[in-house]
Write a structure and sequence with these properties.
The protein is of the alpha/beta class. It has helices at residues 2-14, 37-40, 42-58, 87-92, 106-123, 149-162, 178-184, 205-208, 210-222, 235-241, 243-249, and strands at residues 23-29, 65-70, 77-80, 83-86, 96-100, 127-132, 170-176, 197-200, 227-233, 257-263. Helices cover 41% and strands 21% of the residues. The structure holds 2-acetamido-2-deoxy-beta-D-glucopyranose (3 copies).
Length: 267
Amino acid sequence: MSKLITLFLLATLFTSCHAQIPVTTIQLDIEPYTLSEWTSDRQGVANQFLDLIDKLLALKPPLPLRFAIPRWFDGISITRNGVTKYLSQFVQDRAHLMIMDYVNTAQRAINDAQDEIKYGSISGTKSVIGLETMQLPSEPTSTYYGKNASDLESDLQLIDSAFSLNRSSFEALCVHDWKNWKVFTANFTKPIGQLRRDLYVWDNSVILVEEVRKIFMDDLKILNGKLRRVYLEAEYLMYNSGVEFKVWSRSGASFRRFQLGINYKSC
Ligand SMILES: *[C@@H]1O[C@H](CO)[C@@H](O)[C@H](O)[C@H]1NC(C)=O
Ligand SMILES: *[C@@H]1O[C@H](CO)[C@@H](O)[C@H](O)[C@H]1NC(C)=O
Ligand SMILES: *[C@@H]1O[C@H](CO)[C@@H](O)[C@H](O)[C@H]1NC(C)=O
């Protein structure tokens, strides 16, 4: 796992002013449903996706793995080795989740996440629930874009309260993504509630481009005390690091994005 450890060191260096802050999770956003075979052979592709997860786990990653899955995986029934259950459950049996709960009301977000939160108490794995702020012209109800920052804050609070008795499987809320949330909050000038949330950064220029990194670091100062964890896009680090990327992408499922989750604390 030396390549992965190198990545952690890079990530720690990246947050060098936060040198004591551990990288706490490896998140993968693989998106098997973006393959054309998803339509023609969903069972096959879903099983390849699970095979990939099993291969990743067999590498014994030094940190817990987390998979970003869409909210509707809990409606996709899959049979694997004679066992039939929902795809979300098969993933939860193996790893933690980032539920891309991309809807635009608290009630829908709660409804969509509750099966995963419930099942997490059986599987013993945890879910982060993520909301979207990016403009999605063809799916306007999949994002808070078009609503206002106080709508988002109050809905985050409602979702958190709805699962307040389920902390063993409900880990945190998350906002996707850094740049769009920034636009959404007029450069973070709108009030941000006390609820500490995760930030799905998504934009790899935070790692690759020095000027962007500086802006990001300045934003982290503004968000001081509001964030629990940031997910840094590490796709390019993986490309550059070679070996594991090849292993991880050999399964037949498309390999989309890879993030390192870093628990955030101010300097
Ligand atoms: C949350 O926990 C409460 C109390 O144990 C339980 O009644 C409820 O079903 C749980 N909700 C979910 C979605 O698991
Ligand atoms: C935000 O939008 C809601 C309707 O979704 C409205 O009731 C509320 O007044 C707006 N708040 C602000 C601060 O603009
Ligand atoms: C946010 O900051 C950018 C870059 O400094 C600026 O161009 C933009 O006008 C700002 N937006 C708001 C709403 O303040």
